[in-house]
Design a protein that fits this description.
mainly alpha; Single alpha-helices involved in coiled-coils or other helix-helix interfaces; 2 domains; about 65% helix
Length: about 180
């Protein structure tokens, strides 16, 4: 931990305490990464508003984006959390590994999404033409591209917060890639 404590409920603002109570009810615990946002009076509610915003992407597509971005950004916390969430959404352990590699053999549309997200993340928004063409050929639209970029931004925020703080991972650890 880089001199960054994970705040407890009693040490955060009243507004953040209310959010902690909601997280406890909905998730069953207050994930350390969310608690880290509560160092700020406004960051946790701002982030949750972004994370919970509406999207045309289905839950599985969102988890593809979350896992690919977190793999590119080398975020053990988010890889661990989203591997668990991906499994709750019906992916197997083996499928989460394929997703993280952006080499999805079980669903060509998700593979096109994963490859585009990897390209966008690696190249700071400058996707390679092949990934972009395959994304559109898979049935995604300009609106899908915009939403994918929003979700990449969402996940990059948490990836960077973890990188800067190295708070303890409180999810089952994601397996390393071979």
């Amino acid at each position: 931990m880089k001199n960054f404590n994970v705040p407890q409920r009693e040490t955060v603002s009243a507004n953040n305490q209310t959010i902690f109570d909601t997280l406890q009810k909905n998730v069953g615990f207050i994930p350390n990464l969310y608690a880290a946002f509560a160092q700020s009076e406004y960051a946790l509610s701002t982030y949750l508003a972004l994370q919970n915003s509406k999207s045309t992407f289905k839950a599985k597509e969102k988890e593809v984006i979350n896992l690919v971005v977190s793999e590119v950004n080398d975020c053990l916390y988010c890889l661990s959390a989203h591997t668990a969430i991906a499994k709750l959404n019906g992916f197997t352990e083996e499928q989460t590994i394929e997703i993280r590699k952006a080499e999805i053999s079980f669903d060509s549309k998700l593979d096109a999404l994963a490859k585009l997200v990897k390209s966008l993340t690696l190249h700071k928004g400058h996707a390679d033409e092949e990934s972009l063409a395959n994304f559109y050929a898979a049935g995604y639209t300009n609106a899908s591209l915009v939403e994918a970029i929003i979700l990449i931004g969402d996940k990059t925020i948490t990836n960077y917060l973890y990188a800067a703080t190295e708070i303890p991972v409180d999810w089952p650890l994601a397996k390393p890639l071979n």
